[in-house]
Design goal:
Layout (H helix, E strand, L loop, with lengths): L16 E5 L2 E8 L2 E8 L5 H4 L9 E7 L1 E5 L5 E5 L3 E4 L4 E5 L4 E6 L2 H7 L10
Antiparallel strand pairs: 1-2, 2-3, 3-9, 4-7, 4-9, 5-6, 5-8
């Protein structure tokens, strides 16, 4: 739970940090103890091919700004989302961009902190 919230507004136009990882461009802003990230995934991107691991071991909570992306869970479930969709994806997934346009996501926190902050028991880390 956030503590000492006095309200805040930040812009991805002036991020606290910018990262490039596996072809993904990521802008990060910090709002108190909450981290928000805007990630732009290029067409053809796939987690298992570009991030150096077969699966993402973090829970993802966010909003799709543009494009389309698919998350494939360990049990074979396929979650597809696009512009305007809000999502929760549990740890242990692969993901890939659908189509010929970049996918832009805004994600809140990451990994165990997202699972704890949003009260998602059992979704923190894949075994």
């Amino acid at each position: 739970m956030a503590t000492g919230n006095r309200g805040a507004a930040r812009s991805f136009g002036r991020p606290d940090d910018h990262l490039s990882k596996g072809g993904v461009e990521i802008d990060v802003v910090q709002l108190g103890d909450l981290k928000a990230k805007r990630a732009t995934y290029p067409p053809g991107w796939r987690f298992s091919e570009h991030m150096g691991a077969p699966r993402c071991h973090d829970t993802r909570v966010g909003y799709t700004v543009a494009g389309r992306i698919v998350a494939e869970l360990d049990d074979g479930t396929r979650l597809e989302f696009g512009a305007g969709d809000v999502f929760i994806v549990p740890a242990g997934h692969d993901a890939y961009v659908l189509g010929d346009e970049p996918c832009v996501l805004v994600q809140f926190d990451e990994g165990e902190s997202a699972a704890n902050r949003f009260n998602l028991p059992g979704l923190a880390r894949a075994a």
